[in-house]
Design brief:
- By secondary structure, the protein is of the alpha/beta class.
- It has three domains: 209 residues, Rossmann fold, CATH 3.40.50.11540; 91 residues, Ubiquitin-like (UB roll) (Roll); 85 residues, Up-down Bundle (de novo design (two linked rop proteins)), CATH 1.20.1440.230.
- It has a five-stranded mixed β-sheet with strand order 8-7-11-9-10. A four-stranded parallel β-sheet has the order 3-2-1-4, with helices on both faces.
- It is globular, with a radius of gyration of 22 Å.
- The mean pLDDT is 95.
Length: 418
Amino acid sequence: MKSKYNVKMISENFGKYKYNEIEKYVELGGFIGLKVALEKGKQYVIDELKISGLRGRGGAAFPTWQKWKGGLNELDEETFVICNADEGEPATFKDRELLLQDPYKIIEGLIVSGYMRSAKTGAIYLREEYTYMKYKLELALELSRKNGYLGKNILGTDFNFDIKIFSGAGAYICGEGSALIESMEGKVGKPRLKPPRIGSKGYLQMPTQSNNVESLAVVTTILKIGASEYAKYGYKDSIGTKLISICGNVNKPGVYEIPFGITLREIIENISNGVEDNKKVKFLQLGGVSGPLVPESLLDTRYTYEDLWDLDLGIGSGAILVADEDMSVIEYIKLANNFFHHESCGKCIPCREGVHVYKKIIDKLINKTAKKTDIDYLVEIGTIMTETSFCGLGQTAATPILKAVKYFKEELYAATID
């Protein structure tokens, strides 16, 4: 079905070539973006990224042009660039599809990021669960070297750059930039104290820039087709397109590329073909298990950064989990908290103790032994976690529970004894 809901820019190469077919990637326009960057220079790349409005696609949504421009000021020492492929957020699997179906686009984007920072080496940090892709990515890197896109004097220039692969060990916390770097250095993957940030002291104390898989794919796309072409899609300040992963109680789960600006309801009804068995939507969870619960009453909200931020919601990683009318909110937040209870690294007290207290209260709700004051305590603990946790895990672990209290308080109250 071809319609305004289905776009093919970032995902234009899906299903068109395999890892060992670099020549097909080139035939599809591969490495044009790299050639453009090397020919037109760094300021041109920054200008194009600014026009494109690209924000980091890993969840932080920081403007990419600002991030990359900041790195240009640190060229007096050796630098390092990373592709963060530690996609550990439950319900998020759009980076997986990029790595499987268009690996050279990711490699090309990482080469461009290396050029922008005058780096000699970059890395793809691959989550442990994606180890089955490692040999394929290594083959793609080797073919890139043989064809002059990696190594010395790339495309006949004086730019020398290569990429290696690091494997994660299955820890969700390693998706956080500094914890990822600790893991790369052979240490326990726990976040570092900031400052200094990894932009100034990262891998092996080198200034380091880390970008999400999709972010690099979008950079490659923008440099290939031009920022003005990319900017034809989107809505107001949310420019372009977004890869989303849809799962849960829908008829057609999967990864889709959509233009910013369509509504959440349109995504469910027109892209994932509605809810299974014609049931009603009870809530969505946006951005993975750390994201907010969104009630059915908000489904006509546009899928843009600004529209969601106005409601204290967010896009996050791009995941959309759909729960139907039969889903228990209490059972769901138990699943979400169990994940964080397992994945908390334990470094800071608010996160380590907060998820433990949450577990006790949620168990009381399930057993119908909780009091209404326990609901208030959920908010108090969540606020402390959000404001004082050491890293993003603890800062967002309370999000689904806080939104459950906001939008489904009556269901929580119904499970209390007073």
